Prior knowledge:
Blueprint: H1 15-35, H2 43-50, H3 55-59, H4 61-81, H5 86-115, H6 125-128, H7 137-144, H8 158-169, H9 171-196, E1 200-202, E2 217-220, H10 223-232, H11 234-245, H12 247-255, H13 261-273, H14 281-297, H15 299-305, H16 308-315, H17 317-334, H18 340-381
Antiparallel strand pairs: 1-2
Helix pairs in contact: 1-4, 1-15, 1-16, 1-17, 4-11, 4-14, 5-8, 5-17, 5-18, 8-10, 9-10, 9-11, 11-14, 13-14, 14-15, 17-18
Amino acid sequence: MPESGPSHTVSPHIDGLDSLRGIAALLVVLHHLWLLGAVRPSVWEWRLLHYSPLRMIVEGRPPVILFFVLSGFVLAHALLRRPTPYGSFATRRLTRIYPPFAVAILVSAVGYALLDPGAVRPFSAWFGSLWQDGFQPQTVLGRLLMPGSGRDDLDPVVWSLVHELRISLILPVLLWMSRRSWTALLVGSLVVQWLVVPFGMDAATGAACRSWLSCRPYWGASFGGSLLVSAYFVVFFVLGIGIAVHRDRLRGWLAGPPGWTAPALLVASLCLLSGWPADGDLAFGAGAALLIVLVLDTRGFAWVLGAAPLRWLGRISYSLYLIHLPVFLAVIYGLTAVPAGLRVAMLVPVSLLIAWLFHRAVEAPAQTLGRILTASRGRSSQPSDARPRASARA
């Protein structure tokens, strides 16, 4: 794709992307509810879940790939609008991601210590495998170091945060490379992805990956392996960066075709995210990129995503993603006097409530801390008429 300059006509904040992130987080919650094994669908319900976009609930992987593409776009979009010294950028990313992550791990460890279920493991084998590795200080400290080697049974979703943080810290370099030749960067990241797959671990089998097309790595067998697995996910950030760098051209491309094109492209993006016609990470990434472009430059989609409940879901999306599994564990193992069916019915609403509280008590203060730590540096390095940074809360 030829080089194009950054857009200077974009709005300061993109609510639709917040809502999209919130929907993705909710899909992950519903995926884990599915893995709990308490829901027994009828034949028609099973078909609906497997042969419609609801397949993302069963799959679980597409929303996480969407997170990566979204982060690539949002961070590049912000840096294009307002170049930021690397120290300030890195400080904000660290304070944005790490404090809520650390608190979620500690909350889960405390819940484990108080509600240790021992050998009593209701529901699925997957759910029973959580809270198994212990809550001793050395175990918790090892999790807080974000090694990315093996599943974290205190809060398994944090595997993606390890890669998110690592890649976002090199994103300014990726953006610099993309503005020179996005195509070369994309091809290079695809080659790297192919090379590093054998160093990853597949959650479905618990074994090392052997095949590029059939394996979806989550973590590495060692810390070094986890670094290589992080390299696997770079391509999805590159897709998001490409949207930010070439947004003006993409806007013109969408403005040209007939009015039915946008709905057709929406169907195509949902098909790709649902595993049709190809079921793999690259297809999920392509669907995520197409969906983001549509949200950015199609008024109808942006209007739908601007609904207040979806904006609220977007605001708490990171907290919801982080805290819902500790909530699941606490409700299932802590409310044993409550009938099992009622406990399962409580999981999603209680997760939403706790995520809102977690956002207010932990996530929002962490964001404020990042602004405070970089405020003086930002004033000294930006012109007096600089506009506020744009974001969709990456």
